[in-house]
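User: Here's a chain of 712 residues. Predict its fold as C-alpha cells.
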Amino acid sequence: MNKALFTFAIAALAATMPAQSSNPMKNRHLPYPETQRGNITDNYHGTVVADPYRWLEDDNSEATASWVQAQNEVTSDYLSKIPFRNDIRDRLTELWNYPKESAPAQKGDWLYFTRNDGLQNQSVIYRRRTPQGKAEVFLDPNTLSDDGTVALVARSFSEDGKYFAYATSASGSDWVVINVMESETKRLLSDRIEWVKFSGAVWSHDSKGFYYSAYDAPAQNVYSSKNEFQKVWYHRIGTEQSDDILIYHDEEHPLRYLSGWESDDGEWIFITSSEGTSGIELLYKHTGEEEFRTLFAGFDHEYGIVECENDYLYVMTNEGAANYNLVRVDLNDPSKREVIIAEKESLLEGVGSAGGVLTAIYLEDAQNKVYQFDFDGNLIRQVELPGIGTVNGFGGKKEDKVLYYSITTFLSPSTIYSFDVESGESQLYFKPELAYNPDDYTTEQIFFESKDGTRVPMFVSYKKGLKLNGKNPCYLYGYGGFQINMTPSFSPTSIMFMEQGGVFGWVVLRGGNEYGEAWHRGGMLENKQNVFDDFIAAAEWLIDHKYTSSSKLAISGGSNGGLLVGACEVQRPDLYAVCMPAVGVLDMLRYHKFTIGWGWVVEYGSSENAEQFEYLYKYSPLHNIRKGVKYPATLVMTADHDDRVVPAHSFKFAAEMQHAQAGKAPVLIRIETKAGHGAGKPTSKRIEEAADMYAFLFFNTDTKYRKPVSNK
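Assistant: Prediction complete.
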C-alpha cells in the first residue's frame, strides 16, 4: 500500500466509539477462544499482506471445527443471558404465523401455487382445477427431510403439463439435484440429475426432455473447491444422466456460466454465456445446424430473452439504452433489428409475454409501474394497480385470458390479484390475515446527498406518532451491487422492531440497477467506495434529522451487503452502536479463489490485477481492521454449508476483530449449522436467527423490550 493510501486508511479508521453504556451486562461474555495467528504472507505487486488466519479457510480440518464450536459456545452463552430474547422469539413466531400464497399458474388442467400455513419450514405446492376449486397437496418439501433443511430452489413443468421437474438443495447448498414427477399421478420417476448448480430444468417444446447446466463432480472439497467448466446438457425423460446429450461447452473459457433455452416451436436453440454476474453473450442456432453462432457478442451489455415467435427473437437489453429497451431480431437475418419498446427515463425492470401481450414492469424511484403493449410495441394500457409497492407476476402462456400478480410493501406481505387481459381489470384473489394492523405504521421515501453530491433514495418506516428525538433504535439495511434492485420488501421482523419504537431504514445504494446501468457502474470496480459513502451518508442523515443517534443505530446486510457492513464498520466505527454483517464477502483479496467467487471479478475486480488490487486493499474489511480501535458491538453471521460466500470470510473477519478490539463491546460470530447462503432456509431457523439478531441489537443499544398486546 502506498503512503497516501495508508494515511487515508489510518485516518478513516482511527476514530473511536462513543462512551460505553452504563449497563455493564451487555459487555460481559465468556473469554474468546484463543485463535492461533500464523505467519503466512502474500506479496501483491510489491505489497506484502499478512494472512494470519489462513488456516481457517480449511473448513474440513479438526482445528477449524474446534474453533467453530468454541466460538458458538461463546455466542450462545452471551445470547442466552439476554433476558428478553425469548420474548422476541415468541413475538416473531406470532407475526410469522400468517398464511402465505404465491400467484397461481395454469399448467395443463390445473392451477398450481405454493402455500405456507404460517410456520411450515418450507412452502407446499398445491393445485386446484379452478380458481375457486378445492386445493390438494401436489408436493410437500417438508417431507423431504426431518428438519426442513431440504428446499425446492427451482421447478418447472413440461410444455404439456405432463411432467414436473424440481431441483432440491440440502442444507442451503448451491448444489442441487433435479428430480421428475408425473404430474397427474404425482408419481416420482427414476430420472435424477446431479452436480447441477445455478440451473433448473428448461423443457424442450415437445415435453420429451429438458436442458440443464452442470459441473463435473468436485475432485476435492464439495463446498469450497473452485467450480470450472460449466456445461449445458439435454436430458430425455426415462434415461440415465450418463446418457444425456452435451449441447454446449467452452473448453477455452473455464470461468463462464452457461445456460440453454429452446423456442416454443422447437426451431431455435439459444445459449446464454456470462463471465460473471453481469455481461451476457447470446449464441443461437437452428435445430438443424451443428454449430452455434454469435447473435449478441459479449460481455459489455445485458441480453435477456423474452420470447421467440415466428423466427423473431424479443430481447430486453441495455445496449445503447442504459435503462433498457426491448428489441426484436429477425433470426433469419440478424442484421434486421428494431426497437419495439423504447427506453424511458425510468428503468425497464422486466418484460413478460403472456396472454398474447407484452407486459413491461418499470421501476420509478424504486416503485413499480406496469404497462402493456402488443408485439409491435403499440401501447395498450397502463395497468391500474390497486396499490403501490413491488410488483411480481403477469406470467403465463400466450392463450391465457387471466393472469395473476402480487404487490408487496414494507408494511404488508404479498397480496395477490387476478388480471383480466382483455378488460385490464384487477380483482383481489388472496389477502393474508395478519397478527398486526398495517395501518399503524407508515413508510416515507426521502432523498439525501452522498459524499460526492449524488442524490440517493431511502425508505424509512416506523410506527405512526413516533417522536423524532434521536432516541429511537434504528435498523439500517443495504446491499448495493450486482444490479440487484432494492424495492419494497416485507419481513415480520421489521414489524416487531417498529412495534418497539424502532425506525427501519432501507437504502437504495449505487451498485444496484434501480436507475439503470449508470447507477450500477457508479458502485462497482473502482467506484465501489461510492456504495459505502452512500450508506454512511444515509446513517448521518438519520442521525442529523433525529430519527436515531449513533448510540442507537444498527447496520445490517447480507452477502454483498455483508461486505457493505464490514467496510462501513471499519471505516466509521464511531457512527454505529451495532454492526451485523451476514454471510459477507469480507476478504477482497482471496474471494475469487473459492467456489464461484471468480464470477464476481467483473463486479469487484481482482487482487491479481495490480491496479484493482490497490482499491480492493483500500476497502477490504478484513485488511482494514486496526488494532487499538474501539469497534461497535459486532455479530458476524455465517453458515457451515455456505458454498456461495464460503464461511472462511466470516471466520477470519471475526478472529481479526476479536484480536483488534480495544473497546468493551462484544465481537461475536454466529455460525449456523446445516444452512447455507440463505435460499431455502427453514422458517424455524429464520425465526431463531432473527430473534438472536434483534436481541443483540436491543441489548447493545440499551433498548427496553416491551411485550406488545397481540392482535391475534
